[in-house]
Amino acid sequence: MGNYLGLPADLGSSKVQALSYIKERLEQRIQAWQARFLSLAGKETLIKSVALAIPSYVMQTLKLPTTLILNFHSTLANFWWHNCPMYLKNHWLPWEALSEKKKDGGLGFHDIHCLNLAFLGKQAWRVATNQTSLVSRLLKAKYFPHCDFLNANLGRRPSWIWISILEGRMILKAGPRWRIGDGKSVHINRDPWVPHPPSYRPISTTDPTSHAMVSFLINSTSKESDFQKINSLFDPDDVQRIIEIPLPIFDYPDALIWHFPNNGSYSVKTGYEVALHLKRNGQLGKRPRGECRKGVLGPLYGMSLPLKIDKGEHLPGLLGASEDNLALGN
């Protein structure tokens, strides 16, 4: 049936087969590039500016199958390490290690899995914050009519799009918190509202009521924090954080914000950073087999090096020297 608005019109029963055109498009690009005998600097530019942009449109809506992501990474790794497809060479480091920032010893290539989740986190953020939109109302009516989006379950017979949005919510849950307005919508113990990651919840409380809202801690007359109640209920560290929360003079409703940027709005850039952090900690599945050691290559980028090394001509050797387990006669 072809594509509609850049996506397959008929997904069928196999997601990998429905999105196989992405891999085919990448292979066509790489076939043309390999005929040019590019330097490592040229390969790096093409991978970052062209190859990694090929699946970006699909990743904003759908979670790519793991098989497709692994094939995509494998194709890019083969192009990076091999000058000619007829003569295969060793991969000195896995793609996960090359996806680290340069200051951490990688090359700054994007990890497709993490980038996919960061894009889907943007969709999850829109559903969570723009509850009056048509899409948000449709999803709520079908999948979570009796709770909010952050606590929604997969439901019965979920669509691929809904499954993808919930995958993006995994990233969203790592950094959202409530900006306190009137405090009437935020539960003291259950909701994230204290500006202290990673939980954004009070460390300890002796709250005498099980359903107390943050408005209980605000003086209704002066619109300021009730120091007596806060001091009697919370740990000293939490007391300091809570009294530093700015409160509006007028009764504004509470708002959900993204903790990491200053403006409180979710961005794909910060979402990608969170996804990388979760993956390093093994919270997005299995940890990568090889790790690029932090600090091995980072200091080299600030040094005055010969031109050939600066251009990356000796990069494979430098990367190989950072690993203890390579078969180099040791």
Key descriptive features of the protein:
330 residues, mainly alpha, 4 strands
Structure description:
A two-stranded antiparallel sheet has the order 1-2. The protein has a two-stranded antiparallel sheet with strand order 3-4. The protein is mostly helical and 330 residues long. The protein starts with a strand and ends in a 9-residue tail after the last helix. 40% of the residues lie in helices and 4% in strands. Strand 1 and strand 2 form a beta hairpin. The longest helix has 18 residues, at 112-129. The chain has helices at residues 15-18, 20-34, 40-49, 56-59, 66-81, 95-98, 112-129, 134-143, 160-172, 227-233, 236-243, 268-280, 307-310, 315-321, and strands spanning 3-4, 7-8, 176-179, 255-258.
